[in-house]
Specification:
Number of helices: 36
Oligomer: single chain
Radius of gyration: 33 Å
Number of strands: 31
CATH architecture of the largest domain: Alpha-Beta Barrel
CATH superfamily of the largest domain: Phosphoenolpyruvate-binding domains
Distance between the termini: 29 Å
Strand order of the largest sheet: 12-22-21-14-15-16-17-13
Largest sheet: 8 strands, mixed
Shape: elongated
Structural class: alpha/beta
């Protein structure tokens, strides 16, 4: 936008009588709702709103739009005519407030100035007009304090210290005990503070006060706290804020005046009733600032029954009109009620589900709209146990909140100890610098996982989420020493093995000692241990059940699970999974089978290799039989071996030390030496881009054939037992159709051999993961050899961005988020513009070649609420995610299918 002009001769100022609640983009939430209440005939003080467009022009150019001053003057003239008084006139001044108001509620994040128009002259007129000198001087000192801090940048503590000194001199504890003479002195003190700190006098011209306050509100959009809040809430940074100029009404005129906030329902529980706070003889900021103790809103009935009854009626009107929980700000001026703000109120996750079902039962909304009132993120909050917020805690660190939940246990520093202690009945937290596949047993045994490295898609994070384990990753302030079996926390305190620690996977916080936890009834419901409608059923469970049932009826996307064993598969099925979208076979090669893999890697001859594969075959078959039994009648997509082979070998440093020690002691070490040679041979600078996935199947003869045979024989065995196995074989890391054709030819041959040997007809679909940019770009060719695509969005994100997902989140993602390069990590929510474009293009190209091509996603994005909506829009058939995220994906798939552009309950 050039200079300071808006396009198309934009209108920058709207009277409250001109707007409505649907103009939030232009008037901000506060302005739109003030206009809506005005339209409803509710008692709203007259005023006008400066649009977000004016703010955006100002922020881009550094100057207000050319037309803004004249528009403000015209609306101010109209306001003065309506009120019968001039802004800041000496005898009977009109005073106004200048308040921010963005599209999305950002409480306390931007600026407000009250009592604009007061000066050394008009304060006398206000005192005379109100018949209350104390009130006038109290209002004046408030203006100087707020204006000095907000507009002139004076440190707020200086005013607070002066106020405290005035109370101390008077020997009182609350500001209402200060008399007019005390407040006059305080005004003089405040003006001196302004002069000294701001280098100028407090402005006496009321229009200058208003103009400077308007600019300050514009500039507060880019204040540090506002930007931080927007990042946290994922609110776009380019919306700008509106500015509301409203004629003042006064709650600080004595005991028959006051101010308060009210909720049409309890925002914590969702229960109906009278909820809110009231403060006599106060202005609005006093309530939220907490400078004096409020009384419960219900007590207003005894203080001022007329105003109370009117407020209750207005609250009912607003809830019926907005058809939702409303958050209300009001002021009573000498017995007259004024409405200063309303908005759809923020609420806890539990309240969101309860209120949605309550409103359906009351006939205010239908089930489609109710589904838009709850989110997968809220459901996730309800599913995980939490620490008791009332407990006394000692926080010693903070990392990345990788997998939600609350876990308490004794710190252990290796998987062996974790398993050993767990089998003895101990609860443990596995503490590592980072985890690898060899830590799986320990991760399973542990209550939670804590690492000093890694991010939300590191091994620890991904596996923990799959198991529903609490996990905190990348806690860099914690120094983990696995050799000495200890962890040093900031301040020098040492956590020895066996010391109890607590980790919060929802916040990333780490505590010393045991913090008590509160269990989740919602998980008990999904596990089948609590039944809606039963006498002991929690009403929250009933609400969740109803929302889930409706989402399941409406959704088009099917939801599968990422599960590698029968136990996880059964849990996933209880949680509503409609199959397995990803079985990672590498997890089946750990533990005691590791030696068999070592034999395969060390094999020098075809005979040795065949012997190692023959040893693995029956074990793999047993795994698949159990999996097919658990998921009988539902599809099971099995990914053939994917990670680099060196992950199954000992650490190169530890092995080198072992060999060196054996040589120095002249002890036998032939096997270790062969292992070391193999480790060196397989070592890669970047193994995630090296010998893995389909490349393994092509260079290690018989590896993929063994896995395909195990799958086929397991399917045949289940069919013989009258089961209904529905196996799908997935080839990982394909970059060209030729790779897939070669593997497919071998797989088809093996399946035919098993059919002949067992006399069983097998229909095993063969497809591939799309996790490389080249695969996405040549998807039309690859579809010629694939019956399904499953988008591996973890690796696709990594290869599209050129990010090493195990490193970047801890190293520079924080800076990228702070600078606004990311709104959210692309490993957490799919990058629609980059990675998402490849997904859409590959889906379209694949279906042009093969119209019946089945499309799914099995990366971590499959359980992310926002990403689920993208996959719905992209036309995929299913998403797959960890078992504990299945309900979230089900709910979001239902919301995606019923999405209404008019619904926005951020």
């Amino acid at each position: 936008m050039s200079e300071n002009k808006a396009p198309h001769a934009a209108k920058f100022v709207y009277d409250f009588t001109e707007g409505n609640k649907d103009l939030k983009d232009l008037l901000g939430g506060k302005g739109a709702n003030l206009a809506e209440m005005t339209n409803l005939g509710l008692p709203v003080p007259p005023g006008f709103t400066i649009t977000t467009e004016a703010c955006k022009v100002y922020l881009e150019s550094g100057e207000e739009p050319t037309a803004l001053r004249d528009e403000v003057s015209a609306h101010l003239d109209a306001l003065e005519a309506r009120m019968g008084k001039k802004l800041g006139q000496a005898d009977d001044p009109l005073l106004v407030s200048v308040r921010s108001g963005a599209k999305f509620s950002m409480p306390g994040m931007m600026d407000t100035v009250l009592n604009i128009g007061l000066s050394d002259k008009s304060v006398q007129g206000l005192a005379k007009q109100a018949g209350d000198e104390r009130f006038a001087w109290d209002s004046y000192r408030r203006l100087i304090q707020m204006f000095g801090k907000t507009v002139l940048g004076v440190e707020g503590d200086l005013f607070e210290e002066a106020l405290e000194a005035a109370k101390a001199a008077k020997k009182v504890t609350v500001d209402t005990d200060l008399e007019a003479a005390d407040l006059k002195k305080l005004v003089t003190t405040f003006k001196k503070i302004v002069k000294k700190q701001a280098g100028r006098d407090f402005p006496q011209d009321p229009r200058e006060q208003m103009d400077l306050a308007i600019k300050a509100v514009f500039e507060s959009w880019n204040g540090d706290r506002a930007k931080l809040y927007r990042r946290q809430e994922r609110i776009p940074h380019d919306l700008g804020t509106a500015v509301n100029v409203c004629s003042m009404v006064f709650g600080n005129l004595g005991p028959d005046s006051g101010t308060g906030v009210a909720f049409t329902r309890d925002p914590a529980s969702g229960h109906q009733g009278v909820y809110g706070d009231y403060l006599q003889n106060a202005q609005g900021e006093d309530v939220v600032a907490g400078i004096r103790n409020t009384v419960a809103l219900a007590e207003l009935e005894q203080i001022d029954k007329k105003s109370y009854d009117q407020l209750m009626q207005i609250m009912e009107t607003l809830e019926n009109h907005y058809k939702d929980l409303c958050d209300i700000e009001f002021t009573i001026e000498r017995g007259r009620l004024w409405m200063l703000q309303t908005r759809v109120g923020k609420r806890t996750a539990g309240a969101a589900f309860r209120i949605a079902t309550q409103l359906v039962d009351q006939g205010l909304i239908d089930e489609t709209e109710a589904l838009q009132r709850v989110t997968g993120a809220q459901l996730a909050q309800l599913m995980f146990p939490r620490f008791d917020e009332k407990a006394k805690v000692e926080q010693v660190g903070r990392g990345i909140a990788a997998s939600p939940g609350a876990a308490v246990g004794k710190a252990v520093f290796d998987s062996y100890t974790a398993v050993k202690w767990s089998r003895s009945g101990e609860k443990v937290i596995l503490v590592r610098r980072e985890t690898n596949p060899d830590d799986l047993d320990g991760m399973i045994a542990a209550e939670g996982i804590l690492t000093s490295r890694g991010g939300k898609t590191s091994h620890a994070a991904v596996v923990a989420r799959g198991m529903g384990k609490t996990c905190v990753c990348g806690a860099e302030d914690l120094e983990v020493d696995t050799k000495r079996r200890r962890m040093t926390v900031p301040g020098g305190h040492v956590v020895e093995e066996g010391d109890v620690i607590s980790i919060d996977g929802s916040t990333g916080k780490v505590y010393l000692g045991e913090v008590p936890v509160v269990p989740s009834p919602v998980v008990e419901y999904f596990e089948g241990r609590m039944h809606p409608g039963a006498d002991d059923a929690d009403e929250l469970v009933e609400a969740v059940h109803r929302m889930m049932a409706f989402a399941d009826r409406k959704r088009r996307l099917r939801v599968r699970a990422n599960a590698d064993n029968a136990e996880d598969a059964l849990r996933a099925r209880r949680f509503g999974a409609q199959g397995i979208g990803l079985c990672r076979t590498e997890h089946m090669f750990l533990g005691e089978r590791r030696e068999m893999v070592e034999k395969l890697i060390l094999a020098d001859t075809a005979a040795e290799r065949e012997a190692a594969l023959s040893e693995l075959l029956p074990l793999q078959k047993k795994d698949f039989v159990e999996l097919f039994e658990a998921m009988d009648g539902l599809p099971v997509t099995i990914r053939l071996l994917d990670p680099p082979l060196h992950e199954f070998l000992p650490d190169i440093t530890e092995l080198s030390v072992r060999v060196a020690l054996a040589e120095s002691r002249q002890e036998p070490h032939e096997n270790d030496l062969r292992l070391l040679q193999a480790v060196h041979r397989l070592h890669e600078q970047n193994p995630m881009l090296g010998l893995r996935g389909v490349r393994l199947g092509l260079v290690i003869p018989g590896l993929f054939a063994m896995q395909v045979r195990a799958i086929a024989e397991a399917a045949a065995e289940r069919k013989a037992a009258k089961g209904d196995p529905r196996a799908e074989i997935m080839i990982p890391l394909v970059g060209t159709v030729q790779e897939l054709e070669i593997v497919r030819e071998e797989a088809d041959k093996v399946i035919a051999e098993v059919q002949t040997a067992t006399g069983t007809e097998l229909k095993l679909a063969i497809g591939t993961m799309i996790e490389l940019p080249r695969a996405a770009l040549t998807a039309g060719q690859i579809a010629e050899a694939a019956e399904f695509f499953s988008f591996g969005t973890n690796d696709l994100t990594q290869t599209v961005w050129g990010f090493s997902r195990d490193d970047v989140e801890a190293s520079f993602f924080t800076a990228y988020l702070e600078k606004g390069i990311f709104g959210v990590s692309p490993f957490e929510t799919i990058d629609k513009d980059g990675v998402g474009s490849l997904v859409k293009a590959a889906a379209e190209a694949g279906r042009r070649t093969r119209p019946d091509l089945k499309l799914g996603v099995c990366g971590e994005h499959g359980g992310d609420p926002e990403s689920v909506h993208f996959f719905h829009e992209a036309g995929l058939d299913y998403v797959s995610c960890s078992p504990f995220r299945i309900p979230v994906a089900r709910l979001e798939a239902g919301r995606a299918a019923t999405q209404s552009t008019g619904s926005d309950h951020r």
